[in-house]
Amino acid sequence: MAIDGLIILDNTGSVLAVYEVLHANVTYTERRPIIQSGFRLTSPSYPLLHIDALNNALAKSPGVDPLFAFAFIHTFVDILNEYFGNVSAATLKENFDVVYQLLEETLDAGGHPLTTSPNALRDIVLPPTLLTKLLNVAGANITTTINSGSGLGSGPFSSPIPWRKAGLRYASNEIYFDMVEELKAIVNKHGTTLSSSVWGKIETNSRLSGTPDCQLSFTNPQVLTDCAFHPCIRLKRWSDSKVLSFVPPDGRFVLGEYRYSPNPSSTTSKSGNTISTPQASTLNLAREHVPIPFTLKTAVELEDNGGTFDLTLTSRLTTRDIEHLVAEVHLGEGAGGIKCVASRGGAADRYGRGLDGVGASWAFDSTKKILRWEIPTVSPSSSWSIRGSFITTS
């Protein structure tokens, strides 16, 4: 299995979309790509083939895993964010040379992923800076000069560990772990939770010298399910003892992602060991709802040509904040003419901001007919509300 090429295009003028080619491609002929890598054995018109070509390829190769291409795309987008920060059409156009170098280094001539570790890529393709751009214009071969080996590191691929550079030295050795979790839930009009789940990731920042061997253990690792780890993790150690053992990359990276399961489903084998089974997990999903840390009360009045609504959100937490809270309300087909006032504690100024100056904001998606209410920080036991009206043609 191989990836024929990669296309980067801007589909709205500001939002970047990335599409893979897996012996065929789903394309939108009304858009022109910003950047397109060379395709191995096909003509330039190959990306414009119909989706039927993909179905034919899948029929001939039943063993093809489409997630292979999606995984590579996700990795490549992460690499672009690592190099450019805010990825946009303007950023890519200003750094054509760097993007093409990354394409050449991340995929080999056969269409297989080659070098995808940011640590290794930085030794081959230098991140864009004003100095590197000036030297490139002047014709200086700065990549060869900087990476030729002048002491600690002996150049690209000198380390036996693909994700870690050789010869790293820090004055103070330290590593930071940040557990970032996101709760997603669906609540009906009566405030009853229909579904809820928590997805988390372990964001890490490593500043360790040499080749450190780290271990990270948890008080209750059984609540971590559906885990996806960085390649540095020793999977057998995690499987045997639920301990994360690894040699970390240098700098910032995501050590792993997981789903929080308050009631992990398990069964007992003949040997007496406790093992998890997909069937048991599926049957017990309803019991694994995570309690929502706030209450949401709704009052909606419908009329012939529209309606009004009043939503009140109150935090159940008494000691901790809730960060980046987003509530979406579907107003139905034909909804429009939205007018809202978002406030904290039932009070707002004439701009719809809370009296404390850090109020909520709202936006309406006219395509999906969804009202999106965002609150940056919900302090303990605080109450927030959004009131408004809308018109409808149906």
Automatic annotation (TrEMBL):
CDD domains: AP-3_Mu3_Cterm (cd09252), AP3_Mu_N (cd14837). It is found in: Endomembrane system. Keywords: Membrane, Protein transport, Transport. One of its GO terms (cellular component) is clathrin adaptor complex. It comes from the Eukaryota. Residues 172-394 form the MHD domain. SUPFAM superfamilies: Second domain of Mu2 adaptin subunit (ap50) of ap2 adaptor, SNARE-like. GO terms for biological process: intracellular protein transport; vesicle-mediated transport. Belongs to the adaptor complexes medium subunit family. This is MHD domain-containing protein. The lineage of its organism: Eukaryota, Fungi, Dikarya, Basidiomycota, Agaricomycotina.
